[in-house]
Write a structure and sequence with these properties.
801 residues, Spore Coat Polysaccharide Biosynthesis Protein SpsA, Chain A, 26 strands, 38% helix, 20% strand
């Protein structure tokens, strides 16, 4: 009969081809090939799966068509092998003779097989009684070299509502997009497949450079083998029979977002290896069709389900897009590393990241120092320096300079500062009533500034006499301020943060530390000890997890007219609180954010975070309101109107939640922080402030220093959380206000260009070598943000009910 291929598919699951193939009807009378015998191979590796192993073996032993031989291959676990032999003495039980991993174990089983057909069943799957009876008749056609069947998920608990059926391959099962009747496919699924033994012998079986090792969620070894078989024998047929069914157990841990992301990323890496081994045309042809047809159809179906009242449809649509992005990120990462070995074997040597950057602060009135290149992490040399340049305490800008061998001399750094910041220096001097400098001298106070009318000594004198306006408070009175510090008690810099808080140059404030740890920590003891000597410290607990709940607790406890928020891993400038209060010069200013600077740039991850944009927003004052934004620059103010930008829907440009303050009564009227937004609660409250008609101010003089995460894994998590937070915030805007929804949708093309175009203001700082996976993870989080928000909103509604 003639069988047409079904829909395209991907991953380890069966993948359909596109050409009709005539094969024999498996229900036809037996022919010369009806005497074929079969060996079933089950590969095992851990005692933790013992109950499932027993079920898998018994499902094979009770087949309607019995197997001539059952081989159990134990992957480098002598104790497990002894247990299997004692329990099933009638089976052929052997140890994996190759390297650790599923591919080598399957090859070992093939080597011990005696049947004409070798069928493979996973150790956590159970075959239906007619499994072999469905697979074997297809081999009456000599062109059929492999036959696979359907793998139905057997969930340990309920199926997650967010998991789209198009991605059931993530949990090792068949998925939407596969043929619904017998059809030729590109490859079979690993937990339910069979091959002619002669084919496995001719092709040397599965490639050990692919396949799962232990619990590492990777695969594609059967994909690569089926493609290789078709390349060696172009007339060969690989069939999929949905009636040949197994039940594949899916444990609770596989129904999590974490596993979903890991599995998709690993799948992308494996696909890159397959494409390298067999060519991208053969290796990715089905995936392209799957991406163009199956996934868009799944997204549309999820959105229709939302319209019909199934809110989880939005989660499933978001998961489809996120899964595609994460898989693509894994593929691109592997391609960039020229991966050609197994995921799980020793990875190719990584390209070195950017060299460490020495971070320093330069106060011009105190002179400019030499910058040595020694003393880097692990004895390395610094390749560059990032200098925060201040004059009379006021930040003028950041100057990045490459360090030559031996370091940078003070005159060389001075020349670089003068070249980059001359306009800002001169503007500050004019504001002080001082003449501008013809030349900036690097020497210490007391030395002359050369031929210019003013030098370092004059700069120091202006600061000492108080003639510098930046040293005089903009607000002459000192209103009482509550500083809220949420903490989980595990931050190594917590004590340093408290020290810098107690040393602020501001007369009237309290420090409210909110303990948000799930279990008792030393936070209470530390605060009790400090409050005995310094009554400004107060301690309170918030049992509900999440920084939004902790900040809301601090807001409720605050006694000040203004409430400021600082993270528990910061070092604060002594003038931080004064600068924040000075930002409330106008009555319409409801909130003020400050500058967050890198305390160190010793690792590639820390440098990449700064290239991404960091937490600081520059050294120019800004004002934001519903009508637009204003940046105070040398020579005047620059105004940006909303119609020419994405304003006000770029809340990340307003500042960072690690360094912000509000009028207490205004923040309470706004409802505080929304705990449904995960990592987006700070940008949400800043955006709501602007949308409510208030003004936000950015004061660069309110400076704190943050120790960025040193590890790449932590940075990946941060980028993903940033995306989730922004996606959740925008979803909230769309869902809560029709006017905002229309405004956002009109700006969608501009927003996509901002997010994706490499030369946009968002991406322009990313230099060569910036990991593409970080961008992909952020975009993945952005796509998943609506799903997270919908789930959190549903939980919040249930808890209120």
């Amino acid at each position: 009969m003639t069988i047409h291929a079904g829909s395209a598919a991907t991953s380890n699951a069966s993948s359909s081809t596109s050409d009709p193939v005539t094969v024999l009807d498996p229900q036809a009378p037996a022919g010369p090939g009806s005497t074929l015998t079969v060996t079933v191979v089950i590969c095992v590796y851990t005692d933790r799966r013992w109950p499932q192993i027993v079920k898998a073996v018994r499902s094979v032993l009770t087949q309607n068509v019995p197997a001539a031989q059952v081989v159990v291959v134990v992957d480098h676990n002598p104790a497990l092998m002894a247990r299997v032999r004692a329990t099933f003495p009638e089976l052929t039980v052997v140890a994996n003779s190759g390297p650790r991993g599923l591919s080598a174990a399957r090859n070992t089983g093939t080597g011990r097989a005696t049947g004409d057909i070798v069928a493979f069943l996973d150790d956590d799957a159970e075959a239906e009684p007619d499994w072999l009876a469905r697979l074997l008749p297809h081999y009456r056609d000599e062109r059929v070299l492999a036959v696979g069947g359907h793998a139905a998920p057997a969930w340990e608990e309920e199926r997650p509502l967010w998991l789209p059926p198009e991605f059931d391959w993530v949990v090792g099962c068949s998925f939407t997009g596969l043929p619904t009747q017998v059809a030729p496919v590109r490859n079979v699924i690993g937990c339910n497949m069979s091959f002619r033994r002669s084919v496995l012998d001719r092709t040397t079986g599965f490639d050990p450079a692919l396949g799962r090792v232990g619990r590492t969620p990777v695969g594609c070894e059967e994909t690569e083998l089926c493609i290789r078989v078709r390349q060696l024998e172009p007339d060969a047929v690989v069939l999929y029979d949905p009636a040949a069914r197994v039940r594949h157990r899916v444990t609770v841990d596989r129904g999590t977002w974490r596993y979903f992301r890991q599995r998709c990323f690993s799948e992308g890496r494996s696909k890159a290896v397959v494409a390298r081994l067999v060519g991208s045309d053969a290796g990715l042809a089905t995936e392209r069709t799957y991406t163009r047809r199956t996934l868009p159809a799944g997204v549309r179906r999820g959105l229709r389900q939302v319209r019909d009242g199934d809110r989880a449809g939005l989660l499933r649509s978001g998961a489809i897009v996120a899964g595609l992005l994460v898989t693509a990120a894994g593929y691109l990462t592997a391609r960039a590393r020229r991966a050609s070995h197994a995921v799980g074997e020793q990875a190719p040597r990584r390209r070195p990241g950017p060299p460490p950057v020495r971070v320093l602060a330069v106060e011009l009135s105190e002179g400019v120092p030499d910058v040595p290149d020694t003393g880097g992490p692990d004895g390395s040399r610094y390749g560059a320096t990032q200098a925060l340049v201040r004059l009379h305490g006021q930040p003028l800008g950041l100057v990045d300079v490459t360090l030559p061998a031996g370091g940078l001399t003070a005159p060389a750094l001075t020349a670089a500062i003068r070249a980059r910041l001359s306009a800002a220096i001169d503007a500050h001097l004019r504001q002080d009533g001082l003449p501008t400098l013809d030349r900036l001298d690097p020497g210490p106070p007391g030395e002359t500034g050369g031929p210019g009318p003013a030098g370092v000594a004059e700069l120091a004198a202006a600061a000492a006499t108080g003639s510098c306006p930046s040293r005089r408070p903009a607000v002459q009175y000192a209103p009482f301020v509550s500083v809220v510090v949420p903490t989980c008690g595990g931050t190594p810099l917590f004590a340093s943060t408290l020290d810098s808080l107690s040393a602020l140059e501001y007369p009237h404030y309290e420090i409210v530390v909110v303990d948000n740890a799930p279990h008792p920590t030393d936070t209470a003891r530390i605060l009790i000890s400090r409050s005995a000597d310094d009554p400004r410290f107060r301690y309170t607990r918030e049992p509900r997890p999440g920084v939004a709940h902790a900040r809301n607790r601090g807001l409720a406890e605050a006694r000040g007219a203004f409430v400021a928020f600082a993270d528990d891993d910061l070092l604060l400038d002594r003038g931080w609180l004064r600068a924040l209060v000075d930002g409330f010069t106008d009555d319409d200013v409801a909130g003020v954010t400050g500058q967050v600077l890198a305390r160190e740039l010793d690792t590639p991850s820390q440098i990449w975070l700064e290239q991404y944009g960091g937490y600081g927003k520059g050294c120019q004052q800004r004002r934001f309101n519903r009508a637009g934004s204003t940046t105070v620059e040398v020579g005047g103010a620059h105004r940006v109107e909303p119609r020419r930008s994405l304003h006000p829907y770029l809340p990340g440009s307003y500042g960072s939640g690690a360094n912000m303050a509000f009028r207490t009564d205004v923040l309470r009227r706004l409802g505080g922080f929304d705990p449904r937004l995960r990592s987006g609660e700070d940008i949400d409250v800043l955006l709501r402030t602007v949308l409510a008609g208030h003004t936000l101010a950015y004061e660069p003089g309110a400076m704190v220093w943050h120790t960025h995460r040193r590890e790449l894994r932590a940075l990946r998590r941060t980028m993903y959380q940033y995306g989730v937070g922004l996606g959740a915030v925008l979803t909230k805007c769309i869902a809560s206000d029709p006017t905002t929804r229309r405004d956002l949708l009109r700006r969608l093309p501009r927003g996509l260009a901002y997010a994706l175009w490499p030369g946009s203001a968002k991406n322009g700082g990313k230099q060569k070598g910036y990991p593409a996976s970080l961008t992909a993870l952020e975009l993945c989080g952005l796509v998943l943000g609506p799903a997270y928000y919908a789930a959190a909103a549903a939980r919040s509604g249930r808890s209120r009910a």
